[in-house]
Amino acid sequence: MMAATLGHAHEFKSGDLEITHPYARPSRPGQLNGSAWFGVNNAGSTGDRIIGVQSEVAKHTEIHDMDMQGGVMRMFKVDGVDVPAGGHVKLGEGNKLHVMLLELEQPLKAGDRFPLTIQFEHAGSVPVEVWVEEPRDGAATHGHSHH
């Protein structure tokens, strides 16, 4: 299993997989749960699958999706997310996939960073660092750097 390494602009690599821009939003007072998002580029010729996530900042960590049912947005746990060969998956941009951080150990504050381990079916465990960032009004998050 290869260790993940920090890239130029908040990216982490493990073999053919590159994890891009892992981030979370600050939690609000009294908020018990949080969310995190990231992208995965797969430069390989074999697909992989995200099968789990773990972080010490929450008692439970799950991958969730959302859909509309009867005019109500419903969130539900998913068992995994496919990352196609030569493809890209983004949790949180253009879809409703996200990592739920359930029962936060402490509030998430802007400027903080925390570890998150992404478990892949084939690549194994890939540790990344999640940056807690304030939302940007209408600004695209792709391609930005933390320098």
Automatic annotation (TrEMBL):
* Gene3D superfamilies linked to this entry: PCu(A)C copper chaperone
Organism, scientific name: Corticibacter populi
Pfam families in the record: PCuAC
In its UniProt entry, what is this protein called?
Copper chaperone PCu(A)C
| InterPro entries recorded | LpqE-like, Lxx211020-like, PCuAC_sf
